[in-house]
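Workshop exercise sheet. Pairs work together: one partner reads the sequence aloud, the other fills in the structure field after running the prediction. Swap roles for the next sheet.
Pair: D.N. / O.F.
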Amino acid sequence: MSPTQPFRTFIRSTGYKLRPPCPVIFNPTVHRAQDAVRSRIEVGPHQVGTILREQRKGTVPTIVLGGFVPDATEQVYLMRGFLLKRGSVYYFNYPHAGFSIDMVFAQLDDLVDELAEQYGQRPVIFSVSFGVGLVMEWLKRARLAGRRVDLRGLVLISPVACVEDLLAPGTAKPTTLLGRAVHPFFDPKAAVDERGIAKARSIFTKMFEAGAANKESLLVLMTRRELFKLRNAVIKTIQDVSATGATERVQSMRQMQPASSYFSQTLLPLSDAPTLIMYAEKETSVIAEHSPTRFALESAHRAYFPNGQFKIITNHRGSPVQHASLIFHCFNFLPPISAFYRHLKNGKLHLAA
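Structure field:
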């Protein structure tokens, strides 16, 4: 471990005591996109995500979308202080009792419009794993509709953007831990019952506990109290996602196409905003060996994001960096993220009179 890390932990923990996390529910006054979705399809209250906000005076707000689990509030637990120095943070937590990909996109549309119209700001979209897939599909649909999403930047961590990223076509059995968790949700011959849901919960819990097993290393990153609080929050989220919520959330990936299928001038680029794409050095427990999204972004990321950069995050002083390991390998991900935010241009949107 770097000798500076205990000092970093002390500073961050002190910051938590002086300004403890206090995200509050944020309801945008702009709801045009959500109204349009409700007029077109039936969406229940249980399928609407919760947006929480920690407000700051900075000019670079961040919208966080996590993976399947945990919630966005826990996904960036150790990066909260860094992000808040740049501006307000908006945590997009998916609903636990259901899921609607159309409503997710509508909520994102309304939130981005709200930031532009009310605050004159363009956000950074900070997405992780499954959340990256949502963001890429959202941007693709905006291109199809002839709309331009005006963003300050994009951070895409360990992208999972289609079913084939988790379940390799033609493979009899899933080869990854996450693949085994989600396989029953895509098997037309199998009905996902409570036993299947319990198995999926168990696998997600094991994935978190595997990272949390080395408590000595974790205590370099956070205090015992923080570790206890974080673990309880993550496990609670895993247990609280209902059978319907889990099924609808996972099966929403059926609506996400492999990136290679829209490799065309009419749909690309997805965004001209500065983009940071990061994969971990050890993605094999989650992402299929021949992940089409990884192949597309590693070989042709500039076609999708002309102002993008692609990085592999490694750790030379301890355990290998795992898929989306923002908690257990925070200090490995932080340098490129810090450099990315540092180079974003300051200033607000020039709004029309």
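Discussion prompt: Residues 5-343 form a domain with the Rossmann fold fold (CATH 3.40.50.1820). What would you look at next?
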